Structure formats: C-alpha cells, structure tokens
C-alpha cells in the first residue's frame, strides 16, 4: 500500500508540474510543492513497512532456530539479540531516519514558503505583477480529476490505518486529503476565473497555500519537539511528526470525535460518551453543522444598507448594482459580494505623517514654534525665497540722501547671493473634507483610495507651497493658496477617477520644523529682520533729526545739499560759463538767506547769526581803536614831552607792577632806612601787630 502511495504521489507531482508549466498558476505551484513533499512521506512509509516485513521474516527464522536449539545442539552458541538484525535496523530507523525525514520536510516547507516564491507575502492580490493564467477551462477538469483520485486513495488509506499495525498510513492519508481540499479549492478559483474573469480568488488561494506551508512546518516542529517528552512503552510504535493532526481533522473527523470523547470521560471520571445527551449530540452534530452552514449562506443573501451610504453588489468581481439604503437581496457569498460605502458622510483626511502620542504634561504646554505640539499630522514643505539678492546686496546711495539704501539685484556688491539657499523649510498641517460621489469608482478604481487621495493632497500642498514665500504662506496669501489647492485637488481626483467631491480644504497650521532647532533658528532670522527694520527706522529718525537740527527741516537740508553739490560740480567743470557758476552761487545764497529774509534754520541759522554778531563786534571794536588812535595823535602833538613821560611811566609802572622796588637817595647823602625784607606773606600776625 505504501509503495502504491509513493508511485501515485510521484505521478501526481509530475502531472501537477506539467499543469503548472502550462498554466503559470501560483496556486497550482503550491499544490506541486505539497505533492512533492508528500513523496518524502510515502518514501519513509515504504522503507519502514519494508523493514517491518524483514522483521516479520526474521522472527519466523528466529523461532525456527529456537526450536532447533531445544531439539538438538547448535554448532555455534549465540545470543538471541545478535540474531535480530532486522529488528535492530527498524529501531535505528525509528530513532534516526524518522527525525531526519521530519527535519528535511520541515526545512523544505519553511524555505519554500519564505524564499522560493516569485512574489512576496506583502504583495497585493490586485497587483499587476501576478502572472496571467492560461488554459483555465482544461485546468479545471484536470485538477478536478486529480482531486477525485486523491480523495479515493486517501479514504482507502484511512480505512487501512484503522488497523493497529498499519496506523502509520494516516500520515500519507492526511497529506492526500490536504491535496484533495487544495485541488477542489483551485477548481472553484479557476471556475471564478473562467466564468467571471476575476483572478482574485486564485491569488487568495495561492496566499492560503503558502501560509499553510508555514503552519504545517510549525505543527511538525511542535510534534517533533513534544514527542521527546511523551511517555511511551518500549515496544510502542512512534507516531511520525509529519502525521498532521490538522489535516487529520478532515481525513477522519470521527476519530477526532472519539479522542475528544475519551478525554472527556477521563476528565469527568465516568462514561460521558454513554449518556443520552452525548448520543443525541453525536447523531445530530453533522446535521446541525450543515444547517448552520446553510443558514450562514442564506443570511449572506440579505443586504441591509445603512442610511449614510450605498451598497455596491459585485458578482464574481464585476459590478452588478449600486443599491440605496434599505433591505435588499442578492445571491449568496461568494457568488455575489456586497460592500457598504458611506457616500452621505463627510470624511476627513489629514495630510502628513501621524505624530507619536504625547504625554499629558507636554500636551498642556503652550503652542509655540519652539516646543513640540504635534497634535495633528504635519507635512514638511519647501518655500521659495524670491529676490534673494535683495536681502544680501545693495546699491550705492542715490542723490537724495536721507532715504535708506535700496536693494537692487542687478548690481550686486558682493558674492553672498551665490552661497545662500533660495528656499526655506516649513511644516504645514492641512485638512481635507470630502464626500464620496461614486461608490463603485471609490471602491474599485484603486486598491487604497484613501491613500491615493492623501497622495494627491500632499503633492498639491508641496507644489503650491514651493511657489510661495515665507511671509505670504504665514500670513496674507494663505486664503488664496487654500482656494487654489482646493480646486487643483478636485481636478486631479476627477482625472484619477476617485469619484469624490471636495467640500473643504484648509491649512490648520504653518510653522518652521522643530527638529534640530530649526524653529529657533527661524525665530532668530525673523528677529534679525525685525532688528534690521528697527535699525533702519532709527537711522532714518536720526538722519531726519540731524538734518532738522542742521537746517531747520529735512526738506530744506536736502534741497540745500543738492544746491551745494550742484555748485561744486559747476565750479569744478571747466566747460561751465560764468553765468552758470554765478547762478549756482546765487541759488545757494538764496537758500541760505531766503527769498524774503527767512533762510535756513536750525544750527546753520544759529551759526549764521553768530557769525553776523561776531562780524559787527569786530567792526565796532576796530572802529573804536581807530578813533582812540586819532585822539592819541592829537595829545602827542599838543605836549610831546609830557606825553612821552606819561607813556614811559605808564609802561614802567605796568612792567614793574609785580617786582620788588628799592629806593636810593639821589643827592649822595646817606640816610638810614629800617627795612624788613621778609615777605609779609610769611610773617605772623603778632609780629606785624608789634611793628605796626
């Protein structure tokens, strides 16, 4: 029986591989892998049962030899253990070959399920990368025939496995039953592909078969490990780890039920399985399960549409109808599938990445640029910096001084603009509210329509923000930007066939990124710009104050400066005529003195008045000196000797005013004078009082 099973499994594997080459079905590939792994199971069964035949023959020979020992004497006296070579080889197979086959099957299933498929486990069943299946009509009949043969052989092997000596056949029978179920499922999936032109069910089955390989590998591993801790008698035949308990549920459900009944009897301590309730449940279990399955299929025919949307009914993946809210009927699952789409509800979509949850302490902080307040998703965008050279390069001052220097990118004064970055980074929080207009378009145009719509929203936000400057996006241009993004999102969604209507779009927040102190640097830039503006205004104020203090008013000072500059230019120009030079001088004089006597004011007017006062003082003083000199001439002419003596004495008195004087007699007589040559400033008051 094991040899026939091995030949059947090998033939089935070759047959399924030929079908795989002709159809390129991924589900068929899974069946080929299962059939190939079944060859190892049947090969082990062939080897074990062949060895058991040898053990049986060896026992007969040993029994005959024992009888000969009893009747006569043997030439060689040997132990009985040494004669049972086949029995020892069978024990070796149970001890070493069974784990080797089990580990090989586990490794092959694991490697195939993880690495050896052309598509990954995360690939979508609606992806275009799946191979196209060919020959679906013929494939149904061939796979169905293989399933029928597998079912017959499996049931026959299960019947033989009920005998104690042939219990190992359960492993091969369970594996064939798994192939039967997989083949039937593939026939149904191919029927949906052939009659409804939908390959989704075949791809789902490929996923199921691939995951089934992982599940069976895990089950065999657990069986292999737990078998070491299971107590058993020395002569007990081991149960192979690749004898799947999971597939045994479908192979012999009655045996599982009996095992459960025996476990219940053991737990309760009496024959629970002999009670009338258990007998009733045993007789009615299958009809009840069938009734439940029938009820579930019957319930799938009823569709109740909610009040906030519509129900899309598909028959084998194709649109059949879009039903309004209410009670409706359809064909049972999986012939027709109903999907509820909330078309009357306003949906909200937030652009950007969802932030991690924050603790309550941080949520209570103030909402500033420099602290983390990511309570909604944000999107990092680049914002343009137009006329960058205007912030870095300046012209020389014009003719009209008093006005702050103007920026002009045409005549740069330095090369800093080539080193500056012409973009800025901001963090934008956008929210979109939309309504589903076409339920079937929303459901079947894209696999994930919400993600597609979010991609459109983020793309439009990024593109439109790149054409804005920082101040415009932060302030007065945000409203117009929202309207443009709104209309562009609606246009792109209609072009993509999403079937939605945009009812609102708004930018909830715009601020610099917090990462790496960007917000702090942004605030420093804003502060520097404000300080620059304040410095410019202070300079303008000081300039106006200086001009006002100098000339009385800013306008008069600027006009007078222009006239003086024009006069200097005219004086230095050799081609200028005398009339032009005189006209320039007259203009300056007129601005200084004024047309009607009211000239410049301020410090200039004060200096002019002080100069005039100094002039009159100098002229009057010189005039007085001239009149005094004329009177001195008259006195000299009237008495020359007396005039000369008076001048001499006045000069002598003036020259010797601070000198010590000594008096001598002019006639030669000696007179005695008591002179105290001590400086009176160093003599005490008492001495001065005594000699007074």
The gist of it:
The chain is an alpha+beta fold.
Based on the model shown, name its key terms.
single chain, Tetrahydropterin Synthase, Chain A, alpha+beta, three-stranded antiparallel beta sheet, 692 residues, 9% strand, four-stranded antiparallel beta sheet
Account of the protein in words:
With 692 residues, the chain is of the alpha+beta class. The chain is built from 21 helices and nine strands. Helix 1 (2-23) runs antiparallel to helix 2 (26-71), helix 16 (518-551) packs parallel to helix 19 and helix 17 (554-572) runs antiparallel to helix 18. Mean pLDDT is 77; it is low at 75-79 and 391-421.
How is the topology of this model organized?
Layout lengths: L1 H22 L2 H46 L8 H4 L1 H30 L21 H26 L7 H28 L3 H27 L18 H7 L1 H16 L7 H24 L2 E4 L4 E6 L2 E6 L2 E4 L6 E6 L5 E4 L9 H4 L15 E6 L38 E14 L2 H6 L4 H17 L4 H5 L3 H19 L3 E12 L6 H34 L2 H19 L5 H16 L8 H37 L1 H16 L29 H6 L2
Antiparallel strand pairs: 1-4, 2-3, 2-5, 6-8, 7-8, 8-9
Helix pairs in contact: 1-2, 1-5, 2-4, 2-6, 2-7, 4-7, 5-6, 6-7, 6-8, 13-15, 16-17, 16-19, 17-18, 19-20
Into which percent range does the helicity of residues fall?
Answer: 55-70%
Strand content: 5-15%
Q: Biggest sheet: strands, sense, closure?
A: 4 strands, antiparallel
Write down how many β-strands occur, each being a DSSP E stretch of 2 or more residues.
9
* Element string (H = helix, E = strand): HHHHHHHHHHEEEEEEHEEHHHHEHHHHHH
Q: Would you tell me the overall average pLDDT?
A: 77
**Could you list the spans in which at least 5 consecutive residues all have pLDDT below 50?**
75-79, 391-421
Shape type: elongated
């Amino acid at each position: 029986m094991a040899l026939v099973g091995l030949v059947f499994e090998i033939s089935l594997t070759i047959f399924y591989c030929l079908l795989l080459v002709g159809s390129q079905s991924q589900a068929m590939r899974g069946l080929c892998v299962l059939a190939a792994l079944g060859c190892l199971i049947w090969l082990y069964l062939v080897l074990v049962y062949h060895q058991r035949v040898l053990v049986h023959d060896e026992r007969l020979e040993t029994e005959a030899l024992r009888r000969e020992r009893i009747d006569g004497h043997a030439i060689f006296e040997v132990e009985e253990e040494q004669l049972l070579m086949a029995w020892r080889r069978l024990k070796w197979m149970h001890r070493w070959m069974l784990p080797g086959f089990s580990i090989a099957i586990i490794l092959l299933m694991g490697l195939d399920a993880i690495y050896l498929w052309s598509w990954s486990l995360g690939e979508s069943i609606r992806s275009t990368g799946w191979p196209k299946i060919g020959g679906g009509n013929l494939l149904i009949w061939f796979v169905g025939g293989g399933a029928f043969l597998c079912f017959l052989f499996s049931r026959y092997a299960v019947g033989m496995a009920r005998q104690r000596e042939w219990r190992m056949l359960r492993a091969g029978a369970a594996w064939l039953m798994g192939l039967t179920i997989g083949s039937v499922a593939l026939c149904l999936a191919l029927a949906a592909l052939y009659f409804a032109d939908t390959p989704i069910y075949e791809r789902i089955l490929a996923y199921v078969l691939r995951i089934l390989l992982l599940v069976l590998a895990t089950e065999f591993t657990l069986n292999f490990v737990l078998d070491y801790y299971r107590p058993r008698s020395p002569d007990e035949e081991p149960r192979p780890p690749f004898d799947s308990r999971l597939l045994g549920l479908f192979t012999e459900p009655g045996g599982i039920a009996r095992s459960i009944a025996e476990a219940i009897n053991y737990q309760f301590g009496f024959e629970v399985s002999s009670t009338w309730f258990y007998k009733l449940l045993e007789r009615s279990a299958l009809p009840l399960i069938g009734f439940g399955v029938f009820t579930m299929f019957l319930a799938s025919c009823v569709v109740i549409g909610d009040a906030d949307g519509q129900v899309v009914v598909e028959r084998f993946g194709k649109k059949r109808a879009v039903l309004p809210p209410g009670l409706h009927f359809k064909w049972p699952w999986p012939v027709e599938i109903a999907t509820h789409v909330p078309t009357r509800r306003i949906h909200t979509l937030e652009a950007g990445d969802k932030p991690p949850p924050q603790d309550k302490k941080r949520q209570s902080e103030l909402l500033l640029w420099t602290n983390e307040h990511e309570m909604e998703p944000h999107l990092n965008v680049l914002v343009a910096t137009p006329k960058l050279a205007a912030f870095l390069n300046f012209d020389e001052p014009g003719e009209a001084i008093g006005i702050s220097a103007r920026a002009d990118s045409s005549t740069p004064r330095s090369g800093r603009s080539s080193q500056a970055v012409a973009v800025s980074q901001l963090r934008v929080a956008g929210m979109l509210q939309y309504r589903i207009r076409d339920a079937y378009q929303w459901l079947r145009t894209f696999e994930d329509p919400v993600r597609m719509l979010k991609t459109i929203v983020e793309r439009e936000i990024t593109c439109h923000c790149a054409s804005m400057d920082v101040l415009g996006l932060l302030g007065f241009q945000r409203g117009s930007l929202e309207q443009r993004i709104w209309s562009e999102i609606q246009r792109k969604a209609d072009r993509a066939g999403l079937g939605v209507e945009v009812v609102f779009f708004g930018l909830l927040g715009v601020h610099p990124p917090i990462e790496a102190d960007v917000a702090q640097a942004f605030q420093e830039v804003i502060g520097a710009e404000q300080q620059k503006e304040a410095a410019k205004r202070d300079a303008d104020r000081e300039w106006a104050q200086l001009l006002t203090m100098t000339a009385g008013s800013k306008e008069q000072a600027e006009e007078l400066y222009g006239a003086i500059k024009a006069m200097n230019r005219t004086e230095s120009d050799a081609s200028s005529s005398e009339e032009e030079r005189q006209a320039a001088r007259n203009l300056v004089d007129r601005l200084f003195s004024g047309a009607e006597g009211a000239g410049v004011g301020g410090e200039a007017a004060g200096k002019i008045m002080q100069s005039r006062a100094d002039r009159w003082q100098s002229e009057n003083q010189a005039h007085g000196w001239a009149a005094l000199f004329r009177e001195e001439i008259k006195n000299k002419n009237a008495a020359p000797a007396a005039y000369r003596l008076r001048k001499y004495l006045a000069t002598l008195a003036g020259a010797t005013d601070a000198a010590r004087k000594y008096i001598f007699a002019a006639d030669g007589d000696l007179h005695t004078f008591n002179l105290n040559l001590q400086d009176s400033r160093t003599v005490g008051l008492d001495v001065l009082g005594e000699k007074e």
